[in-house]
Amino acid sequence: MVDPQNCRDEELVVLCQQGRSECFEPLVRRYMQKAFHIAFGFTRDTESAKDLSQDAFLRAFSRIKQFDGRSSFYTWFYRILINLCLDHARHNGKVAWQSLDDLSEKSNDQRQLVDDRFRPEQAAIAGEASRRASETLQAMPNKQRTAFLLRNDQGLSIADVAKVMKTTEGTVRVYLHRAVAALRQSLVEFV
Amino acid sequence: MKKNSPLSGACKQYEEDLVLYYYGESSAADGHRVERHLSECLDCRRFVDDLRGLLPQMAKMQELPQTFWDSYYRETVAKLNQRAERNDWWRNLLAPMKTWLVPAFGTAAVVVLALGLLFGRGSSPLFIDGSSADLPEEIIADANQLEFFKSLDMLESLGQIEEQDGGRVNPKSDRSSLSRIERGAA
Predict the structure, then answer these.
(1) Of A21, A134, A183, B161, which is least surrounded by CB within 10 A?
(2) Does residue A112 form part of some domain?
(3) B8 in contact with chain A, both atoms CB, cutoff 8 A
(4) CATH number of the CATH domain containing A138
(5) How far is CA A131 from CA A127, A136, A143, B71, in A?
(6) What is the 8-class DSSP label of residue A65?
(7) What is the mean pLDDT of residues A29-51?
(8) How far apart are CA B162 and CA B182, in angstroms?
(9) Is the pLDDT at B162 greater than 50, yes or no?
(10) Is residue A106 part of a domain?
(11) Is residue A107 one of the residues assigned to a domain?
């Protein structure tokens, strides 16, 4: 009997296509953090990021029979997720602001108690830099932001980013350059 | 001559190459070219150093508590199971229908075809029209003389009537009536 936990993505997809729907669960386990973070990069809101990333999993699950293996599973899945995020951005316009720092506030407090090297002024500067970076990301055109999040945060190669975005590698390079230049310009004082 | 953008400090013509170099996406030739330039240009070195300080921080995912991920996973799997059950429900509903769906559609198709043949005969160009439009002229000419054949039928029927009348038939009048009819037909 095949243990789904040890299977590669493509093997799991084939098993799902054969009707073993439980084989989708390891894919959720593998990609849930990345999916959540990329959705958070677009929405800056925990609940929306959670909903969008879960919707992407549900949509991928429903369409699993349409996956033809021409790209890797994660490229295919990211495309679904990115499309959902872009739809969300289009419908919601300005997004609610929430930093991931807020979510880990408790763990920071605990760290402060045990780590005497922790300095509040450094945390304040880091928080301000993070806020400024997120604002700059939000102000970017969607395509630049997508290219940046996929390459910088998710570690996809430019070739894979191009596949996800259904564009050329040259175009991705331009988006990436513009995004990085904009970020560096807004954060130059914190570097 | 160096051309700087307002804040970046890097050479404008190298900026995109520097970003790709940072991400390790330069080709071998471009990589060598950038490295040569970096060895000579302090501003561009500073630019790449800035990227090295800044971009990994951006990519760093803040650690969320494990309870968050446990709950996320449980919720997602529950939603997936709901979706799978719903799909199964539809599949179960459609499964018995499949046994009679094919013959039903087949019968419907035959009925539609039969109705089409029946009612489409007069209007559809697919059906051969019985009119004289496509017939050769000589046939049409003969057809116009059907009156002649009709008159022959009349002659036959007259003959029968006269036979019924028995021997009371006057051969002279018979001949005259025949000649009258033949004149009319001509």
Answers:
(1) B161
(2) no
(3) yes
(4) 1.10.10.10
(5) 6, 9, 21, 27
(6) G
(7) 89
(8) 17
(9) yes
(10) no
(11) no
Is A108 part of any domain? no
pLDDT digits (tens, 9 = 90+) for A51-65: 999 999 999 999 999
pLDDT at A147 > cutoff 90: yes
The structural domains of chain B, with segments of one domain joined by +, span 12-59, 64-97, 134-185
Tally of domains in chain A: 2
**Structural domain range at position A175:** 119-191
Contacts of B53 in chain A (CB under 8 A): 191
Q: Do A153 and B72 touch (CB under 8 A)?
A: no
User: Residues B90-128: pLDDT tens digits?
Assistant: 666 666 565 666 777 788 888 888 888 887 765 655 555
The minimum CA-CA distance between B51 and chain A, rounded to whole Å, is 7
The confidence score (pLDDT) of residue B53 equals 82
- Domain edge (last residue) among A41, A64, A98: A98
Interchain proximity B7–A191, CB inside 8 Å: no
The least confident of A64-68, A113-117, B75-79 is: A113-117
Examine the fold and report which residue of A48, A68, A98 is the final residue of a domain before the chain moves on.
A98
Supply the DSSP string of chain B, one letter for each residue.
---B-TTT-SBHHHHHHHHHHHTT-S-HHHHHHHHHHHHH-HHHHHHHHHHHHHHHHHHPPPPPPHHHHHHHHHHHHHHHHHHHHHHHHHHHHHHHHHHHHHHHHHHHHHHHHHHHHHHSTTT-TTSPP-SGGGS-HHHHHHHHTHHHHHHHHHHHHHHHHHHHTGGG--HHHHHHHHHHHHHHH-
To the nearest whole Å, the CA of B71 is away from the closest chain A CA by 11
Please tell me whether residues A66 and A125 are part of one structural domain: no
How high does pLDDT run on average in chain A?
81
Look up residue B129 and give its two tokens. 């029209």
* pLDDT beyond 90 at B58: no
